[in-house]
Amino acid sequence: MLSAKSLFQEILDDDESFRLFCSIAASGESQGGWENGRIAALVPESQRELAPRIVRHGADEDKHGRIFNALLKKRGLRPVEVPGETDYTMLLESNGIGLAHGRLKREEPLSERDIITYLAHSRVTEQRASEQMRLLCRYFADHPDIGRAVRMISNDEDNHLAYCHEELLRFARAGHGRTIQRTLRECALAEIRVYRDVSLAVMAHMGEVLRWPRAKAAVLAAGIHAMYAYERLVGWRRMVSLAPPERRDALGGPAVAEAEYA
User: Fold this and answer.
1) Which of 203, 259, 247, 245 is nearest to 227 (CA)?
2) Does residue 93 have a pLDDT over 60?
3) Chain centroid to CA 85
4) 1 confidence band (pLDDT: 50, 70, 90)
5) 225 vs 5: CA distance, rounded Å
6) Which tens digits make up the pLDDT trace of 127-186?
7) 3-state SS of the chain?
8) Which residue pairs, CB below 8 angstroms and at least 24 apart, start in 193-196?
9) What is the chain's Cα-based Rg?
10) The whole model's pTM is what?
11) Average pLDDT of the chain, as a whole number
12) How large is the average pLDDT for residues 101-123?
């Protein structure tokens, strides 16, 4: 029976598909780490109290990249070059979502509007990351090889999502509510489109590695398109709502090193 658990298990059991999966994940996390590091360095004076939280966010993303690379090393595997069509982070940027790398490379302070854009982009993408990691936790939290990593990354992603809710609500109270809702909606609609395209590309590459029959590949592609249709119709709304999080000041302390989970 084709299920999310059986699909992940198949990818996990094969060295080449696991290699591709971890390489894609590590690349995306490392890019996120760099982006947050640059944003922290360019925070405007009016929002300097945010800088330590953004630094913590970036440190977590860097840590996740190292963990995925460590999972590869543990199996005696080396990362592979990430196919461009599977690069979620860069495809979001090319669609005008978030802060462009060209802007972040300049030594010019960001504006409050830029910080709102960053937080809205993060709120949408962290929703996706939190959901994905919770799914992996459901099936592999006790796995002897990846269980600790899955649990730790899932907890971090939940912290990141809580942080985005809290900070966006703070900006909303300061009078930026309409800007936030408009930016969130733009980000969400673009993200679900990019996520669909990346999912199709990843499944195509996995299908080649694992030699899936055409019928199986077609069923998976149909499922991805169906999910996109649902998200385009109503599912995107979960990405734009804001509510006080249960985890308050989720990024208020230092990042926890991955060694503590080894």
Assistant:
1) 203
2) yes
3) 16
4) low
5) 19
6) 999 999 999 999 999 999 899 999 999 999 999 999 999 999 999 999 999 999 999 999
7) CCCHHHHHHHHHHCHHHHHHHHHHHHHHHHHHHHHHHHHHHHCCHHHHHHHHHHHHHHHHHHHHHHHHHHHHHHCCCCCCCCCHHHCHHHHHHHCCCCCCHHHHCCCCCCCHHHHHHHHHHHHHHHHHHHHHHHHHHHHHCCCCCCHHHHHHHHHHHHHHHHHHHHHHHHHHHHHHHHHHHHHHHHHHHHHHHHHHHHHHHHHHHHHHHHCCCHHHHHHHHHHHHHHHHHHHHCHHHHHCCCCCCCCCCCCCCCCCCHHHHC
8) 193/95, 193/228, 193/232, 194/88, 194/91, 194/92, 194/95, 194/97, 195/88, 195/128, 195/228, 196/224, 196/225, 196/227, 196/228
9) 18
10) 0.94
11) 94
12) 96
Q: Which residue has the tokens 């080649």?
A: 208
Quote the tokens at residue 50.
């945010």
Q: Which of 226, 216, 218 is nearest to 196 (CA)?
A: 226
- The per-residue pLDDT for 261 is 46
154's tokens: 């899932």
| Cα–Cα distance measured from residue 76 to residue 78, given in angstroms and rounded to the nearest whole number | 7
In angstroms, the CA 122 to CA 57 distance is 10
Q: What is the pLDDT of residues 223-262, one digit of tens each?
A: 999 999 999 999 999 999 999 999 998 998 776 776 554 4
